[in-house]
Amino acid sequence: MPGQIKQDGGRGFRLGCQAISDGGRFPIEHTGRGADISPELLLENLPPETVTLAVMLEDLDHPVKGFPHWVAWNLPPAARIPGGIPKGGHTPDGAVQGIAYGFHRYAGPKPPRGSTHRYRFTAYALDTALPLGAGAGKWRLQRAMKGHILQQASLTASFGL
Where are the beta strands (DSSP E) in 35-78? Predict the structure, then answer.
């Protein structure tokens, strides 16, 4: 059911989405076959010591396991990550969108026609701002987050035509 909040690890930090339920399907507007607009993500129970947030969208069924479709960091610690984040290396609120799918932007699900892939959003509560420029991608982000992740939560949904 849309709006469901999923808790990971029993620690209280939760990730949800009004448009996409955990275990559900992506609506076409949030995919590469539609308008390709990032959905609004909802966060509950952020650790009080959270300084920034990071978010990733990964394709779990791509030949390159965990292929990134979106990476962003230094998002303000708030109860929501707004939808429709514009293209570009830097967002209006000062966050950074790294390279994912070859671009500085959200690139929604777009598996080959006739196949269905699973995609996972993961939100990370971090104890610091990360000193990464917009040229970084998933793997540099993961290295930079090491030792700074307070908690993380995820939501998985599928898409295919």
Answer: 41-44, 52-59, 67-75
Domain that holds residue 12: 5-160
Contact, 91 vs 97, CB < 8 A? yes
Q: What is the pLDDT along the chain (161 residues), one digit of tens a residue?
A: 344 444 454 469 999 999 999 999 999 999 999 999 999 999 999 999 999 999 999 999 999 989 999 999 999 999 999 999 999 999 888 899 999 888 899 999 999 999 999 999 999 999 999 999 999 999 999 999 999 999 999 999 999 98
> What is the Cα–Cα distance from 47 to 38, expressed in whole angstroms?
24
pTM above 0.85, yes or no: yes
Query: CA nearest 71: which of 43, 95, 44, 36?
Result: 95
The alpha carbon of residue 71 and the mean position of all alpha carbons in its chain are separated, in whole angstroms, by 6
Check which CATH number belongs to the domain holding 131 and give it. 3.90.280.10
Number of compact structural domains in the chain? 1
Give the Cα separation of 15 and 130 in Å (integer): 21
CA torsion, ordered 123, 124, 125, 127, to nearest 10 deg: -160
Q: Report residue 38 as tokens.
A: 């990032």
